[in-house]
Protein: [histone H3]-lysine(4) N-trimethyltransferase
Organism: Sinocyclocheilus rhinocerous
Amino acid sequence: KENGKCCLGIFGSVELICSVCSSHAASVCHSCFRRQEKLQRCGQCRFAQYCDKTCQRAAWEEHKQECAAVKSYGKVPNENVRLAARILWRLDKQGSVVSDTQLAALEELEDHIYDISEDDLKDFKVDIHNFLDYWPRSSKPHTVDSVSKMLGVINCNGFMVSDQRGLQAVGVGLFPNLCLVNHDCWPNCTVVLNNGNQSAVDTMYHSQKRIELRALGKISPGEEVTVSYVDYLNLSEDRRRLLKQQYFFDCTCEHCTNKTKDELKMAGAVVEGDKVPEETVKEITEYSRTMLEKMEKARIEANYNEVVKICRECVEKQENVLADTHIYQLRMWSTLSEVLSYLQFFEEASTYARKMVEGYLKLYHPNNAQLGMATMRAGVTHWQAGFIEIAHGMICKAYAILMITHGPTHPITKDLEAMRMQTEMELRMFKQNEYVYHTMREAALKNQPIRMMAEPATESIKNLFRRK
Ligand SMILES: [Zn+2]
Ligand SMILES: [Zn+2]
Ligand SMILES: [Zn+2]
């Protein structure tokens, strides 16, 4: 806040210490977290992988001790254990005088060890055990208490870090200062990971990834700054359960207290002025729940034809029974459009993508990051299907949202800017001469100037905040 006036934009950014998830260790660069086809393995530990020498050099300071530890341990511990070790090495390097205020803030973070459920406690104890085996004898020894404190802090303050396109959670990280920002299901800020430009100079001086705390709208002086740890698309009851389970608190935000929009999220359709009977809505809601579980299973197995089959069957039953804001229907539309576009059935995919965005618009905050990402995806699908007017409109809308939630320097925003210019040019051409437009579009589709057909992710950006 400047001169008592409200400000809009970035509040600040903090340093991130992170480690790659074991499940994605083979597919992303351990330095910049970009998904790459060809990665170069670290010759010492044969575990770490990088895009090139620049990425490797940038990561060496963080990887040096890990490299030796992995080599002598002969195994690779999970991401939480590796992250704990990275943080402790950093703390030890700085000695007893911790000059870095961000790391000093670690002391203030909650570990909630006494709140861990019995099942999770077993895994937690295994992590402690593995840490003690992994931690080299040549490094400064730590007590079981301080190790469990560190793992506890990671457990309830760790963030999921997504890849460069924000599509998949590929790492776990800790942003010590940001953890002190409180949660609200309808927040006034959002956090976003920004690797920014990876120029040589940048890498040399700022090898650390940073995340930004960004305002979603005007914030009045004295108003508390909040972010959301859960997806708003969940019912208030489910959000509260997730928050209690993962972050150990009872949410008392306005939206939870008033159960705002819960009814919309479970509503039945109105057909020709008549409400669908409550019984029928309930029955199809239950049916959708089981179909969603089936669909998730097929999706994890990457059985995309099965996913389409399940979704189509379910969507048919939901039609004219559930409202267009019913979250089970929205989930089906979202998955169906994503998988259909992956299978290159663009026209059908675009129909569901549009329904999804229209539903999201009635539920999400107008500057919600997930809404922005979904609108972008829908825009690309329409572009692929050749509906250039709608495509351009959606890309522009998505761009406006991401300028706020991700900022102008974020790689996704830059991609969107390029798409906006491309679709604008195509739209102009379409208005002048439809034939030329269609010829050009076919050529463009073949060359795929817009590379957005990532394999449908099992974990999406909504899990950015999920505790690992
Ligand atoms: Zn890299
Ligand atoms: Zn190594
Ligand atoms: Zn809440």
Summary: The longest strand covers residues 10-15. The pocket of zinc ion (ligand 1) is lined by residues 29, 31-32, 34, 50-51, 55 (CB under 6 Å). Residues 236-463 form a domain with the Serine Threonine Protein Phosphatase 5, Tetratricopeptide repeat fold (CATH 1.25.40.10).
